[in-house]
Amino acid sequence: MDFKKLISYLKSRFNCTKIYYYAGVDNENKKQLHFYEKLQEFGYLLRLVPVKKFKDGKKKADVDSRMTFEMMKYYPEYDKAVIFTGDGDYYWALEYLKEKKQQIWLIGFRKNTAQELKQLLGQQFNDLSRLKDKLSYPQKNEVDACLGSTSRDYDHNLSNKLKKVK
Length: 166
What we know:
Structural class: alpha/beta
Order of helices and strands: HEHEEEHEHEHEHHH
CATH class: Alpha Beta
């Protein structure tokens, strides 16, 4: 997915003024940090959750919890929302928002989106695979400035900058 095209699409199609990106962050992952820096440059408001590392080597970030919490916490501050997920765990939050807000849209891959979410949102569910042509990176023979080497462009102070992002 070309995230520069995505933010442009969300602004034009849904008239979004704030676009949040929720994700886990591992400050040791330079490629990931570079990606998040690019998202900030494009205009995304990053909502990053530190990745927890367990003794068995597994990693986890409670991104879903933060996103659900903030959808409810900031509920009075928005009248419409576009949510990207397929996770059925969001059902209760989306059901509540659907009842209370003017417009709620759900975007996800049809195959990977919980049936109950598709039923809940009905016509407000958009299959992300139908947007592939609009939101894909250029073909390999076309160059995208965002795809350059992350190692030579990496800002070594980025992890400190991202820690300040809430």
